[in-house]
Every structure is written in C-alpha cells, then in structure tokens.
Amino acid sequence: MLKQIRQYIENLWLSILAISISMIIFGILAVVVPDWVIAAIIQILAVILLFFGCISFVQIFSNLKHERSISGAIISTLIFIAAGLTLLLSPSFTIDLVLTVIGVVVLLRGIIDITVGLSVQKDDSDKITWSLSGFLGIIAGILMITKPGLTSAVLMIILGAYALVAGITGVIYAVKVRKGINKISEAIDK
Fold first, then answer.
1. What is residue 56's three-state secondary structure?
2. What is the pLDDT of residues 133-149, one digit of tens each?
C-alpha cells in the first residue's frame, strides 16, 4: 500500500513538473514570437474543428442506418467545417473579427460603467472607480476595434508572461514536492 502511495505521489510530482515546463516553453514563445503562437493556436483550433466536422459527417451516416433525425448532425457538421475552414483559410480575419466584437462589447461596457459612476453612485470614491473603469474600458474597446492585430499580440505577450511566471512557480513547487517525497521515502524505507 505504501509503495502505491509513493508511486502516486511520484507521478504527481512528474505531472506538476511536466505541466510547469510546458508553461515555461509556451510563455517564452508567447513573449518572444506572439504572432507565431497566435497563428499556431488558430491552426490547431481549425484542425480540431475540422476533425469534429468529420466526426459529425460520419455520425450522419450512422444515424441514417438507425433512422434517427439527422438535422442536428447536419447542422453541427456544417458549423464545425465552416468554422474550421474559416480559421484555416483566413486566420487574421477571424482574429480581427473576434477582437472587434469583443472590442464593441468592452466599449459599450465602458460607456455603461461611466454612466453608472456618474449618475447612480453617491460615494465619490465609487464614482471615481466606476468612471475610471469605464474610461479604461472605452480605451481598450477602441484599441480592440481599431488595432485588433496589435491588441492580439499584446494579449498574447501578457498571457505568455503569466504562463512563464506560473511555470517557474510550478517548477519550484515540484522541486519542493520532490524533496517531500524523498523524506517520505526515507521514512517508509526505515
């Protein structure tokens, strides 16, 4: 029983270490070459969507044999394949479109925050907080709408920096776990 527990903990340590190293690699790539990472993520997502589209296509034929309704399978097949092809054939358009939509939402939220801050809030610090939040939302929304390529690169760099810090933290934690495992192993072996 103790050997099984030791093996489980050792596997856990290796999992933490592997995930942390993966995060460090992703973080470095996202900070150094953010546009490449974005393109790679979009291509991977496109392949996944096309794969699910193919599975849905096969599902149509299996439903025909069982005389079930195939309308849901046809719709999902078309959606998966269309989304996959759009991402694969026009990744920059897709990123720009998504960031523009998000930018419009952030811009509208910024306007709402300023409205709430100036008209609803009674406390001056709440007015300032809501208004500042709204102002930053408006700026972020305008940037996302007018400069989606720059915005996506900056967001990827921020995500990469986070992954890098989290990965380094994970490696440090994994080393501490490993030291704990060694102490437990020594105690078990005695």
1. helix
2. 889 889 988 988 998 87
